[in-house]
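Teaching assistant's notes for section 4

Start the section by putting this record on the projector. Ask students to predict, before seeing the second block, whether dGTPase will look compact or extended. Collect guesses on the board.
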Amino acid sequence: MIWHQLLSSQRTGQKPVANTEPSRSAFEQDYDRIIFSHPFRRLQDKTQVHPLPEHDFVHTRLTHSLEVSSVGRSLGKRVGEIILQRHPELKATHSLFDFGAIVAAASLAHDLGNPPFGHAGEDALSDFFIHHPQGQFFKDKVSDAEWGDLTRFEGNAQGFRILNKNQYGLKLTFATLGAFTKYPCPAWFPKRDKTLRSQKKFGFFESEKEIFREVGQALELIPAADCAFVRHPLAFLVEAADDICYSIIDLEDGCSLGLVSYEEARALFEGLITKNKTKLGKLDHLHSLPEKIGYLRALAIGDLMDECSSLFLANEDAILAGKFDQALADHCPSRDALKEIIKISIEKIYRARTVVEIEAAGHEVLPGLLQEFTTAGWYLMNGTKSRKYQNLQLLLPEDIRSDIERQPGQVYGMLRLITDFVSGMTDRHALSLYRKIKGMA
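Reveal the predicted structure now:
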């Protein structure tokens, strides 16, 4: 792979055109389009780990995404500065700010496809098709590849779908779409090699397979098999930014909520702080817990960014050749300290009562919504009359109703649209709508 092609500013469905805004690159436009989009705004009321209402300092998907984007921008610029020195021919058309903007935009969008109720929401949506009689009803009405999509809801693939839906008009550059896709392969992939990080999950549904093929070919990503490609190099930095933030921020939230003691959190943070240990003395002059945890978090993030960017640059040739396929955070010098944080987080944070309660709610609410609305979609598609389901059809967004009516017999397409509707809800909207249609509110 070559950087000139990997930094393509061409947009999906459009021919290459010159940038008409000299003060704002195409990649900066990508960032702005995402931050003003409706799917991004919905992240403010989607659970990261902890329930939302009680504590204003607990992270939501929105604050998490903004922080990941900030770290991603810094990683991109650090890497871009050295890459431009190594490849001086790029300087005529690109700057280190392009690298930063691509990673920042892709990082900003990285959680757009996540459903309500945290990661448990993904399992709840999948379980509906795997276990629920209404979900199983559709199994023989779709292909094996389509059933693979439905029974393995994947937030990354849903995010790619959102970024390419015409209704949002995002039309992002190929470079940003490539960097966004951490898992450039489909759900139905019999030759999947799970030892490769890029094939651990999947990055697009059958409905977007041809769109990603266009992206991969335009960027000249190295093909694998069955419409799979190797990763865009900058996807490693997007993943690293997410890995850095979620492990550290979840620990910060856990400490703020009293799930982890300050002494234990400090020891865990200090395990990540390698270059900046001399700055730890400042902790003695800070008085409040948020100040101390915030300072430790800043030092840890700074050192992890140094480690991950250095590791990326040391493996640049292997990454461009498609021979490096592991998470940077899993191979950086602080990997053991990160693993210890994740271990403690699982024990004391992710299994906290409030977290378990919200996940349990998700397993009730989301399949319940799918049961009612997939039936409403089926009736709409087949012209079946039912007062109850005609009312539910009116609760669907107008564009989804019209799309279902325009595609008679397209069962997979209908199920994808209904899943778009349910997975796109905020936590509060999902819970409120479930109560209303079940007669509880």
